[in-house]
Amino acid sequence: MTLQQLKYVIEVVKRGSINEAAKRLFISQPSLSNAIRDLEEELKITIFERSNKGISLSKNGVEFLRYARQVVEQAELLEGRYLNAKPSPQHFSVSTQHYAFAVNAFVSLVQQYGQDEYELALRETKTYEIIEDVKSLRSEIGILYLNEFNEKVINKMLKEANLQFNSLFIAKPHIFISIKNPLAKQSIVTIDQLEQYPYLSFDQGEYNSFHFSEEILSTMSHKKSIRVNDRATLFNLLIGLNGYTISTGVLSADLNGNEIIPVPLDCEETINVGWISHRNASLSKLGEAYIQSLKQAITQ
Q1: pLDDT (0 to 100) of residue 204
Q2: Nearest to 245 by CA among 290, 185, 189
């Protein structure tokens, strides 16, 4: 139980609606609902009765509210007496597939909006976990791609989780290879030309379905293939083994140096990269700023 949870309950009672309270608290409605449910589960009581007509305090809730108000009032007295007024730490989290532009945007966000105190998170992770993170509000924003092959499965998951996909850009497929790779001097490469080189992809763990792959053409078979968990390892193997991976073609020399280059792949597929969020939740100030940073990073 936290002081913040007590303040949430008081605000909901004051507004008579979780939705209105969420607006006043500048948080999403699902986030507020989850916080109150966590409190109810921890205390093993029902604070609010929920029905089609809305919410109301239960018998236990009425008693709890009296104690909550006393605690919050005492805490405010202590803060006013002993603490200097200062901004509270900023909070923001994003979960993403392994895109350099997502990291660039995060750096820009911190440089522009970071205060003396902040608690931020950038999770480069698996596709299924990105959706779960945003669904559970562990992250406010998720970054992934859709294409003709995976969109039915991914869109079904997003709909069930009440999430929405917002497109950032549509790219033609490229391969990432070392500048020393024999294919580096070509203006475009074919799939047949890649056969002799190791294929590198990001491991998706127990959800290693073709539809969750970060790389398009995931159903293709390869004579040589290696799965990795992080971008640094993948890039090292691109250089050390003359391997390749398939992605958007968007790279960052600032983060990845000049040893890796994109080369267009002769393929009719397209990659629609975008961000996901809760359908009924407004983005926080940092969330909106991060989306703007994403767009700038992609343009650059």
Answers
A1: 92
A2: 189
Give me the amino acid identity at 166: N
User: Last residue of some domain: 30, 52, 82?
Assistant: 82
Give percent of the chain above pLDDT 70.
Answer: 94
Q: Which residue do the tokens 């008579």 mark?
A: 16
Check whether 257 has a pLDDT greater than 80.
Answer: no
What is the maximum span of the chain, computed from C-alpha positions, in angstroms?
74
CATH number at residue 250: 3.40.190.10
Res 254: pLDDT: 63
Number of domains in the chain: 3
Q: Which of 16, 51, 82 is the last residue of a domain?
A: 82
Which stretches within 149-281 are classed as H helix? 151-160, 231-240, 253-256
Nearest to 276 by CA among 125, 154, 104: 154
Encode burial over 214-247: b for 16+ CB neighbours within 10 A, e otherwise: bbbbbeeeeeeebebeebeebbebbbeebbbbbb
User: Other C-beta atoms within 10 Å of 123: how many?
Assistant: 15
163 and 277 in contact (C-beta within 8 Å)?
yes
Based on the fold, state whether residues 197 and 55 are members of the same structural domain: no
Task: Please tell me the distance from the alpha carbon of residue 262 to that of residue 242, in angstroms, as a whole number.
Answer: 13
Taking only the tens place, the pLDDT of each residue in 56-81 is 888 788 788 878 878 887 887 777 66
Question: How much is the pLDDT for 87?
Answer: 54
Cβ neighbours for 12, distance < 8 A, ≥ 6 positions apart: 18, 21, 32, 36, 48, 55
Tokens 């390749």 correspond to 244
What single DSSP character describes residue 229? S
What would the DSSP string read from start to end of 24-89?
HHTS-HHHHHHHHHHHHHHHTS--EEEETTEEEE-HHHHHHHHHHHHHHHHHHHHHHHH----PPP
Q: Which domain holds residue 11?
A: 3-82
